[in-house]
Amino acid sequence: MLAQQLFNGLLLGATFCLVALGFNLVVGAMDRLNFALGETAMVSAVLGALIMTETPVPFPVAFAAATAIGGGVAVAVYYLSFRFVSADFPTASILSSLGCGLVLTAVVTKAFGSHQRSVPDVLSGVRLDLGVLTVSGAQLVILLLATLLTAGLYLFLERTPWGTAIRAVSDDATMAGLLGVPVQRVILLTFALSGVLAGAAGLLTGLAYHSISPFDGFTTTLTALMIIVLGGLGSVTGGVVAALVIGLIQTLTVAYLSATLRDLIVFILVGIVLLVRPQGLFGRNAGVLERV
Amino acid sequence: MSSFTEAVVLQVGISVLLALGYWIAVSTGKYSFGHTAFMAIGAYTASILTLNFSWPLPLAMLASGAAAAVAGALIGWMALRLSMLYLAIITFIFSQLVNLLISQWEYVGGASGMIGMTGTTVPLVLGCVLIVVAYLVLLSRSRLGLAYKAIREDERAATASGLRITRIAVGAFATSAAVTGVAGALSAHQLMVINPELFGPRQALLIILYCVLGGVEYFWGAALGAVALSLLPIYFDWLNEWYEIVYGLLFVALMIVRPQGLIGRRGGGRIRLPRIPAGRERESVG
């Protein structure tokens, strides 16, 4: 029972981790938050679920489509809320991306209705029995894809020229630009990557719960923000660890205490961390970002 | 005054109060993304006092202002020492926390909320608006108002000039929360029904939009934004249906074209300073 719950918690954390990484990529590139990323995940999940139910394509195709949609939406948000919005007004992009999120949710509810949409199961025949815990086919898929994406992102950032460029821009955009890094294109790439991660997270979360609602975008953003505060703004390691911790806490609270306490305990934890270690568990310094 | 006109005046007055309250925080350059939390605290405090303890409304409003101010000081003290992005995240999370607590608390009706509050009158609302406007006029002429401006323009320079910026900003945040709390109390006693859903992210965005549309440089800009945005849905019915899309696009367009709002100079007269390398920043926080 405990092993099963721990596994479920880690699984939930793995999907959280993808969105939090998306947020952190953008924070790194521009020192700005994309508040529409949760809604991006929602749009991808809803469209991905539609593809799975309405067309006969296999799951990998639907998953690829969902990630592509996520990337596309994130790029659109970049052009609307970041590219042409003045950096002199630090809140301008936050407000603008909040506006984009509002529009995305409204468009999805107007086009596809505001009801919960069920996400079909994948690999429903597969069932791994490991003694203390059983792993369903869908869970296997979630675990595999989330791990692959996280590891892939890590390798991309550490081992490829474009990944190095992203890290350089994140470190110091002016210096990177002077050294010949095409800063605007790198930022565009960062947004696309964050959208791909969000799209994947959206569909995988839908798969885990077997359903997706157009109002999930807001919850996704909120959870990702708490992970970021807990792990430290812009810290990749912190994001991964905090995502797993929050996933575990939420699952264990629902299993052993009560579902109503789920968010409250996370809120309290985040509050304590803010008081004791405002820069987050793995953040270097809360003042690192330009104070405004 | 017909009852329709009265309802319009009440709604516009409360919106103006919300915008002015928010402007106080913004005038120090601190944007909150969860001011609905203070509105909810004010609304519920006043409702509990008038319904369960039969306090008169004006007294209950004072109490709700005080309760919101305490919450504002607390959250300000936690968040204002950190960077802008942290402030945005923390206020956002705080409003969700307040919402969650209210919807779990049986004493105030949980998710279904409270019902039966009355007593918001036109003189009461206009009186509150007048008091806040008078305060803001005095503030903009005082040394404190100048300090707010200094902090908004450049925190490092403000610290170097001997201002205790954290203390001043927390004070501004608490005042802002108090005004928002009073507006929440008035709103509750006008609507007669309150539930946690009223104080959700939609309302939070609306308050910001009031203030940002009009421009954050002058308080009357914020007030005008509130008047415009609360009158529009009353006279254009179709707006209610397309509300999210219209307001969302309004945000997007506004931020590209005039991020400083419709009233106000480009960039608010701000001079851009070279960035100081990371690591040396903490000393300037004060």
What would your notes on this structure say?
Chain B: This is Branched-chain amino acid ABC transporter permease. Chain B: GO terms for molecular function: branched-chain amino acid transmembrane transporter activity. Chain B: It holds the Pfam family BPD_transp_2. Chain B: The chain crosses the membrane at residues 7-25, 31-52, 59-78, 84-102, 114-138, 207-236, 242-263. The complex is a heterodimer of chains A (292) and B (286). With 292 residues, chain A is mainly α. Helix content of chain A is 73%, strand content 3%. Residues 286-292 of chain A have low confidence and may be disordered. By secondary structure, chain B is mainly α. Chain B has helices spanning 3-26, 36-52, 57-79, 84-104, 122-141, 143-153, 155-160, 165-191, 201-214, 219-235, 238-257; strands at residues 114-115, 193-194. The termini of chain B are far apart. At the A-B interface, helix 4, helix 9 and helix 11 of A face helix 4, helix 9 and helix 11 of B.
